[in-house]
Design a protein that fits this description.
CATH class of the largest domain: Alpha Beta
Largest sheet: 7 strands, mixed
Number of helices: 22
Strand order of the largest sheet: 9-8-7-10-11-12-15
Number of strands: 16
Number of domains: 2
CATH architecture of the largest domain: 3-Layer(aba) Sandwich
CATH superfamily of the largest domain: NAD(P)-binding Rossmann-like Domain
Shape: globular
CATH topology of the largest domain: Rossmann fold
Strand content: 5-15%
Distance between the termini: 21 Å
Radius of gyration: 24 Å
Length: about 575
């Protein structure tokens, strides 16, 4: 093994999380790097460190302090070893709590904040943090729509950092090549503005052209200084998420998890369900209850997939999907209540839907839509707890042999229906996936349990991103996303046994995302948006060689070596 050349010594080395080994530094390394006396005399293996760290984790009273790693190799290797158990520590629900209390918990920087008050220094700020380094991934949030807790202002850095961690854990993106960014453009959260400890820009949230120009300056600087980095937009508000994606998706490799990630994992789930039920995507009747960023992103992804996979026209693909929100079915008669940004192709005509019949005036609630549409698929992103009640579910089950029901709102307190009720109300016929994890549920008339798939974005977006990074694709295309969805759907346990979950278990997320990344690299090459010149038979090994692993390297001191 070739030794890694490192330029740091003494306390500076111990304070650098990307290079620190803690008690795993060997005697030779301690002498060479000026660490004698700075560590206990006993040297540990990584496994011994993991055992100690896991014991500390089990005995800890709060998970919040475990989110700030001092040693990346130990941190990531420990979580990978206990991925399903510890994932909530670095993401929801712990992450939401940490972000909500960001100003009170702040200890040290974990990325970069860019604010309008310092806009003239934006480029220099980015240069300072980049320090001549090339990044693979930039994760950015403006903090407007964080994890179901809403506007969190400068606490947005927490979600950017957490998403970066997931890319490392699940897809092997080098954490030293990830840059978390918060666009601190103000907040409309009165509790934050009135909090004396709040660390963010104390103004109402920037809107309109001023906001768009600020974001555009940021994106332009990323394109200038990090032209090959994947730019991941996270937790932007519903009015901006799709707008920003549409603005930049043809100019730079960009990805929005709330729009594309949710749509991608839902498409993969539906493709797996169709293996059980039979039929094409273009033959389904799909009701999506909720027309926010997630609901609209899902609708667009399903439409685009029907066009790409089944060759139908955009007009035909739009008609597969019925969007329902708090105003009822989105139709021409309520045009004044339909928010800007919703594709008009999804808005139904009032009275000339030949396959459905007329929509009676005033009867456009979810139950009425289900009775008339007889959907094969029902998707929930409404955050309305219990919205899929017994009457609604039984009405759906009357219209299709194997209803596909996906109550995706999370946390569980906002889920549209509990899987055990869906099983009961459909007499065990439903195919189910949820946005939060659930234990297996009873199947009526059987001693067997039905394993509920968790429709978790982290099953797809890290591999999709890694594929874009490794292929050096100049943009992220619909074909790349569909390739990722197909790869995930092909790994569905339900392919072999309909009683098995529609998606792989999150414990298998690393292996799953490796296959997704490989599929995305191939798609980028086939589409001609990657200049990668690697024979197809060598792509897997090429990808594996570029996957960061939570393992210690041997160090050798060199003043010209790495220092980050």
């Amino acid at each position: 093994m070739t030794a890694l050349k490192v330029a740091l010594k003494g306390p500076s080395l111990l304070l650098n999380p990307s290079l620190n080994k803690g008690s795993a530094f060997t005697r030779k390394e301690r002498e060479e790097f000026g660490l004698m006396g700075l560590l206990p005399i006993q040297s540990n293996s990584l496994e011994e460190q993991q055992n100690r760290a896991y014991e500390q984790y089990q005995n800890h009273q709060s998970n919040l302090s475990l989110r700030t790693p001092q040693n990346w190799v130990l941190f990531y290797s420990l979580i990978i070893r206990h991925l399903k158990e510890m994932f909530p520590v670095i993401y929801t629900p712990t992450e939401a709590e940490a972000i909500a209390n960001f100003s009170h918990l702040f200890r040290r920087p974990e990325g970069i904040w860019l604010s309008p008050s310092d806009e003239e220094h934006m480029e220099q700020s980015l240069i300072n943090v980049m320090d001549g380094q090339e990044f693979d991934l930039v994760v950015v949030s403006d903090g407007e729509a964080i994890l179901g807790i809403g506007d969190q202002g400068s606490g947005a850095i927490g979600i950017s950092s957490a998403k970066g961690m997931i890319y490392t854990l699940v897809a092997g993106v080098d954490p030293a090549r990830i840059l978390p960014v918060a666009l601190d453009v103000g907040t409309n959260n009165k509790d934050l503005l009135e909090d004396d400890m709040y660390l963010g820009w104390r103004h109402e949230r920037m809107r309109g052209e001023t906001y768009l120009k600020f974001v555009d300056k940021f994106v332009s600087l990323i394109r200038k200084h990090q032209p090959n980095a994947l730019l991941h937009f996270e937790d932007f508000g519903v009015d901006n998420a799709q707008k920003l994606l549409d603005t930049y998706r043809d100019e730079h490799p960009v990805f929005n998890d709330d729009v594309q990630g949710t749509g991608a994992v839902t498409l993969a789930t539906l493709q797996a369900a169709l293996i059980v039920t039979g039929g094409k995507l273009s033959e389904q009747r799909i009701i999506s209850f909720g027309a926010g960023s997630a609901g609209l992103g899902i609708a667009r992804q399903l439409r685009d997939a029907a066009i790409l996979l089944d060759g139908v026209s955009e007009e035909e693909a739009n008609k597969l999907i019925f969007l329902v929100d708090k105003h009822g079915l989105l139709k021409q008669g309520i045009s004044d209540k339909i928010r800007d940004g919703i594709d008009r192709g999804f808005v139904r005509k009032d009275r000339d839907e030949k396959d459905i019949g007329e929509w009676p005036e005033g009867e456009n609630d979810l139950l009425e839509v289900i009775k008339r549409v007889k959907p094969t698929v029902l998707i929930g992103t409404s955050t309305v707890a219990g919205a899929f009640n017994e009457e609604i579910v039984r009405a759906m089950a009357e219209g299709t042999e194997r209803p596909i029901i996906l109550p995706l709102s999370n946390p569980t307190s906002k889920c549209e229906a509990h899987p055990k009720d869906l099983m009961k109300w459909t007499n065990g016929k439903a195919l189910i996936a949820t946005g939060s994890p659930y234990d297996p549920v009873d199947m009526p008339g059987s001693s067997e349990k039905y394993e509920v798939a968790e429709c978790n974005n982290a099953l797809v977006y890290p591999g999709l991103g890694m594929g874009a990074i490794v292929s050096k694709a100049d943009r992220v295309t619909d074909k790349m996303i569909v390739a990722a969805c197909k790869a995930l759907g092909d790994m569905s346990p339900a392919r072999k046994d309909p009683k098995k979950p529609l998606l792989p278990d999150f414990e298998d997320a690393q292996a799953v995302n490796m296959e997704i990344a490989l599929a995305v690299v191939k798609a980028a090459i086939d589409e001609g948006i990657s200049d990668l010149k690697v024979p197809e038979e060598d792509l897997r090994s090429y990808l594996e060689e570029r996957t960061w692993k939570a393992e210690y390297a041997e160090y050798k001191y060199d003043p010209e070596g790495i220092a980050f």
